[in-house]
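Fig. S4 source data, part A: sequence.
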Amino acid sequence: MSRHRLIVEGPSPTVPEIRGRRRREARRSCSALSSSLSADRRRRSSRPVKSSPRSSRGRIRENHDNSGRIHERGQFPEVDRMKVAVLGGGVIGVTTAYYLVMAGHEVELFDRRADVAEETSFANAGQVSPGYSSPWAGPGIPLKALKWLAMRHGPLSIRPRLDTKMWRWMLEMLRNCTADRYALNKSRMVPLAEYSRDCLRQLREKTGIRYDEKSQGTLQLFRTRRQLDGIARDVEVLRELGVPHQILSEKECLLAEPGLSASTVPLAGGLRLPNDETGDCRMFTRELAELADRKGVRFRLNSEVTDIATDGYKVSGVVHGGIIRRFDACVVALGSWSPALLAPLGIRIPVYPVKGYSLTIPITDPEFAPVSTVMDETYKTAITRLGGRIRVGGTAELAGFDQRLRSGRRAALEHSFGQLFPAGGDMRAATFWTGLRPMTPDGPPLVGPTGIDGLYLNTGHGTLGWTMACGSARALADLVSGREPLIDMRPLSIRRYRT
C-alpha cells in the first residue's frame, strides 16, 4: 500500500502547553454536553445546501438513492468539506475512513501499528451475524457465569485485579441482566447489524472486494434440549425485528452442516440465520485500506496520537509527535484504548477490554469441515470456515490489558472444535492468537457525537466489530457530513449513559 505523508507547516503548540489547558477543558466539556449537541444540530440545520435535482427532500438522505446505495465520490450533493482525523486502524477505523473520503472529506488515519488490522481485527471469529447481535448481559447470566467459571473448558475467565474500572464495568453489566434491559439493548443492536450487513453487500458489489467471504448463514448449535428450549425469548425478539430464522432438528442441522456427522457428542437442534455471512476480517480491512488509499485517505502508521486538542467546546486537532496537527473533526475508533484518550477531555465511556482467543486451523478434509459458521452454545465458541482454513474463536477473559497467550484457553477451543469436527482440521498446525474486544456493559456500541463539536465516537462494538463495521462507519460519515443516517443512531450515542 502506498503511504501518503501530510506535511504540517507553521508553528504549533507544544505538548506542555496543551496539558496546561487540560483541566479547564475537562470542566467545560462536561457542562457543555447538552448545549453543544443542541447547537450542533442547529448549525447543521441552518447550513446552506445546494439542492439536488433528484430529490426535493432537502439534505436528509441526499447521499442515497431509493435503494439505499451510497453514491460514488463526486456524485454526492455538495457538503462542507472537512479535514477529518480517524484514530484507529482496525476494521472500524478503516471503514470509517473509507466512507468519509467517499463523502468528499479529506481524511487522515492514524494507528500505532505498522499496518492496519494488527490488533482486535487480526484473527477474530469471522462471522458477520446480525441475528446473533445480542448483549452479553441477559436474564440468567449471573448464574450461568458461576457455572462457566467452574467448568474445565468454560467460556468465562476472570483474573481478579485491583482495577476499579473492571469491577465497575462488571457491576454495570449485572445491572443490565434483566429481561427488559436485554430486550431493549438487543433491539438497539440488531437494526445496526442488519444495516451493516446490507452496507457490506453493497460495498462488495460496488468494489469487487474479496476476503474469503461466504453468504451461507450461521448455525447456533445446542447440545441439550434445555439449551434449545431456552431460546424462546431470542426467537421472539428476532420475530419482532423481522429477522429471518429457522429452528432446526438434529437431522436438519446435519443437512445444513454435513461435517457435523462426525461429531462425538449428541446434538439437540439449532437456530439457523440464513442471511448471515462469514469472512476474514483482517483480509477485508487490508483490502479496503488499499481502496481507501487510492481514493485519497492518508495513512499514518507507526504513529500514535497522544492527545486530542480542543478549546473545551470544539476540536482543533490531534497531538502527534509532540505537536498539534490541525483537523476540523476527529473520530475516535481506538477500541479498548478509546477511554484513555478521551478521559483528559472529561469524557468517560464505559468501554472495557474483554480478552478473546482464536485458533486458525488448516483444513484436512473439507467434507468434515464446517460449511459456514457453527456456534457451540455449550462452550460459546464460533467455528468458521475461511477458504482453506477454519477459525475457532471464543472465551471471555477479564484480565485488563494483559495479552499473554494462555494454554488453558487454547485447550478450551481445541476441546469444542475437536468434539464437533474431529476430522475437519489439523489442530497441531493451528496458530493461536488473542485480542482485546472493546465491550460496553449494556452491549450496544458508542457511535456518534460526544458533546465537543467535531469529536465523534465509533467504538465499543465488543465481539461485533466485524458485523457492525460498515453500518457504523457509513452512519457516522452521514453524521459528520450533516446528513441524517438511514437508521436511527440516537440509541447508540453517549447520551444513553447520562440519563
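Fig. S4 source data, part B ends here. Residues 112 and 302 are 4 Å apart (CA to CA).
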